[in-house]
């Protein structure tokens, strides 16, 4: 696997980031280890993304959000490879009380979830960094993301606290996730005014199809031109989550199962999906692989975060780094 610059930091990371969201939940410990071993040993990857809340929402109440960091920590300890990796985790979207967010059948009250996020106060960040370090069995995090926007906490409190963690050696770089371009600009301006380290990385949803015009009001939905322009102007890196939009490119049935499909279901999206089907058949690869391979050739550069809940999905997706899209098809895809 190739290595790329992480924005204007001096760090080199693998061109694919390993999305650890399903480790310890949808993927049991043994298959989690197998996927991590393959990514690290066979593919030479070093960049891994987790959070302090993955993946509490699966199952019917048996998970609380510790699972992914726990399994990743156990794996790094067993393989003694912590210092060879670039580990990203996140704070802010853990639930205050994961035990009371479900009805008696174990179904999540999704309309309450955002109000239940812990947020980004000084108290939460100082507590949660130590919990993440314990679970990950390490004494530093390479990239620490604020997971969501917290409208109730002044941004200077958050940025100031994150900077005390940098000074204490607990974190190295700061990342932001799920912010609008304006929210990100504002946070960076506050940091600049206070002489604090700014965000080096943005993590947002991005894929080959985009939401319909007018449906992208929510900063959690999808990155667009304004965001790319701002990120480039700041020399920030861009990491793309949900690059396959839950697997819709190869399997048509998954489109209707995807909870956000109504935001994407447009004439333009259908044309793009047809093009993906057409070109992937000609290249004898899957639509999902074509999208991931296209993302690796994206200008401006993006680092896709691979998502999967099964070993066979992981193996299919990771092979996209070995796919060379002929120039004529790349031109068609970009057009
Ligand atoms: N910052 C954030 O707010 C945020 C949000 C989401 C994710 N992330 C990060 O980004 C990573 C990737 O995100 P994601 O899991 O949402 O990615 P994704 O690209 O949308 O893929 C996830 C889902 O797509 C389906 N899928 C993936 N590969 C497939 C294949 N080859 N064939 C068929 N179906 C396939 C699977 O669905 P099924 O399980 O239904 O089979 C899988 O669980 C996560 O691990 C996490 O680290 C961050």
Structure description:
The chain has 335 residues and is α/β, with parallel strands linked by helices. It has one domain: NADP-dependent oxidoreductase domain (TIM Barrel, Alpha-Beta Barrel), CATH 3.20.20.100. Helices cover 39% and strands 14% of the residues. The chain is built from twelve helices and ten strands. Strands 3-4-5-6-7-8-9-10 form an eight-stranded parallel barrel, surrounded by six helices. The protein has a two-stranded antiparallel sheet with strand order 1-2. Helix 9 packs across helix 10. The longest helix is centred in the C-terminal third of the chain and has 17 residues. The protein is globular and about 55 Å long. The structure holds NADP nicotinamide-adenine-dinucleotide phosphate. NADP nicotinamide-adenine-dinucleotide phosphate (NAP) binds next to helix 11.
| Shape assignment | globular
Terminal Cα span: 27 Å
Structural class: alpha/beta
Question: Strand count, sense and closure of the main sheet?
Answer: 8 strands, parallel, barrel
**Which CATH class is shown?**
Alpha Beta
CATH topology: TIM Barrel
Radius of gyration, in angstroms, nearest whole number: 19 Å
Strand content: 5-15%
Low-confidence stretches: none
> For the record, what is the CATH homologous superfamily label?
NADP-dependent oxidoreductase domain
InterPro entries: AKR_Detox_Biosynth, NAD(P)_OxRdtase_dom_sf, NADP_OxRdtase_dom
Organism: Variimorphobacter saccharofermentans
Domain NADP-dependent oxidoreductase: 17-331
Protein name: Aldo/keto reductase
């Amino acid at each position: 696997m190739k290595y790329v610059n992480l924005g204007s930091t001096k760090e080199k990371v693998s061109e694919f980031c390993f999305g650890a969201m399903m480790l310890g939940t949808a993927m049991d410990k043994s298959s989690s280890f197998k996927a991590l071993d393959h990514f690290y040993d066979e593919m030479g990857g070093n960049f891994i993304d987790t959070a302090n809340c993955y993946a509490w929402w699966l199952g019917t109440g048996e998970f609380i959000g510790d699972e992914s960091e726990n399994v990743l920590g156990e794996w790094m300890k067993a393989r003694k490879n912590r210092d060879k990796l670039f580990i990203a985790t996140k704070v802010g979207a853990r639930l205050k009380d994961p035990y009371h967010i479900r009805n008696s059948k174990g179904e999540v009250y999704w309309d309450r979830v955002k109000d239940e996020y812990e947020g980004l106060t000084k108290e939460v960040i100082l507590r949660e960094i130590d919990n993440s370090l314990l679970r990950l069995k390490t004494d530093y995090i390479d990239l620490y993301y604020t997971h969501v926007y917290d409208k109730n906490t002044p941004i200077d409190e958050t940025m100031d606290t994150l900077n005390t963690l940098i000074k204490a050696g607990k974190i190295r770089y700061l990342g932001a996730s799920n912010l609008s371009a304006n929210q990100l600009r504002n946070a960076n301006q506050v940091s600049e005014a206070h002489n604090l380290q700014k965000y080096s990385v943005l993590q947002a949803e991005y894929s080959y199809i985009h939401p319909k015009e007018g449906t992208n009001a929510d900063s959690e939905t999808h990155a667009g031109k304004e965001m790319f322009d701002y990120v480039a102007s700041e020399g920030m890196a861009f990491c793309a989550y949900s690059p396959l939009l839950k697997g819709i490119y190869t399997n048509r049935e998954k489109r209707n199962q995807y909870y956000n499909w109504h935001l994407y279901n447009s004439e333009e999206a259908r044309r793009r999906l047809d093009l993906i089907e057409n070109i992937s058949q000609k290249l004898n690869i899957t639509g999902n692989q074509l999208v991931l391979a296209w993302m690796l050739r994206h200008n401006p550069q993006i680092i896709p975060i691979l998502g999967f809940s099964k070993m066979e999905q992981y193996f299919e997706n990771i092979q996209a780094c070995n796919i060379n899209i002929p120039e004529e098809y790349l031109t068609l895809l970009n057009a």
